[in-house]
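2024-03-11 09:14:02 DEBUG pipeline.ingest accepted 1 chain
2024-03-11 09:14:02 DEBUG pipeline.ingest length=409
2024-03-11 09:14:03 DEBUG pipeline.predict start
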Amino acid sequence: MADDSTELEFIEGGVTAPEGFSAAGAHIGFRKSPERFDAALVVSSAQDTVATGTFTRNVFCAAPVQVSRSVAAGGRARAVILNSGIANAATGEPGRAAARAMQEITAQALSVPADEVFVASTGVIGVQLPTGPFETGVPQLVSKLSREGSHDAALAIMTTDTHLKECAVEFSVGQHSYRIGGMCKGSGMIQPDMATMLCVLTSDMPVSAEAAHAALKEAVDHSFNKVTVDSDTSTNDSVFLMSSCLGEGAPAKIGDAAFTAFATALRAVCENLARQIAADGEGATKLVTVNVRGAANDADADKAARTIANSPLVKTAIAGHDCNWGRVAAALGRSGAAFEQEKTDIDILGLPVCRDGLAIVFDEEEALRRFEQDEVVIDVDLHQGDASTRIWTCDLTHDYISINADYRS
């Protein structure tokens, strides 16, 4: 559905770049330090805001995921309330009650229906979520809502992230211009299967609920579902999309030119945010892109690329600036993808290192120089067909262990 011919301009503004959206972030009591924001609110001013979402398929899904799924099914939402510090996962009926209270408190403060409020949480699993902070904190968030609040909101949802993650684009359909913006968090426990990452996307383009969901599913499948930091799928993964529909023009419908432009712009924002997540993987020093082409089918392409991206040996070799293509070949061989080693080619950082399954002599000093780049690209050609894919990951360093060994401390 996406179309490379759609012209996009990356702009500032994040989740509040589209018309009709405001946001806020604040400390309301979930984290020990009052200097650290721990709650975010994103609101649409449009009464008939179209909304949809994709969610984790982890069976141990969190209470807010269960509540937000029902909101997405309704096709309308006016707000997203998010907290960090406590995931509200594996908390049973008390957790679901807390998620509903989180939703109802926000709805009352905004004078909107409770079933039009998405909820999301991130943090430690198995801890009950108190509702007191929302009772006092949501009015604070509402008072801070502004078009300039995107940064504060993005800061508030961070856990082990080292920096906030935002993106926005502007694009045109005929004589009309539209915007799509977004913010996300994610650094560890990252291998989304949707549909701990959270993402809020906004738009002002008129679009039907069916078209919004179709575009979101495609965008997520080619972005967040192509990211892995550590192969762990979170209990809380959620991606929310709201469109105020305040832009001019008829609503985009599946298959028309407006929908193609919308899907293209949405995918561009999601891919940008997905790359930011991979680059900020816990303890990471490198963004790693694994490209696989020439696979017999899409499933084989994904198996091959994902196995390479998740290999601890490949990831540690990259951390050590070691152009050890044998580790890539070994991961490829256990991936379950159908291929013949005698036909397989591998490049690392643009250097041919394996042709037809055999080693190619390369300049080790040049490889070391190329490892100074921020992004490491691994290219594999299986020569089995026309299918291809791309997976984003990161290297694996000692810091990953340090971060996760005392995560609850």
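2024-03-11 09:14:41 DEBUG pipeline.report The mean pLDDT is 93.
2024-03-11 09:14:41 DEBUG pipeline.predict end
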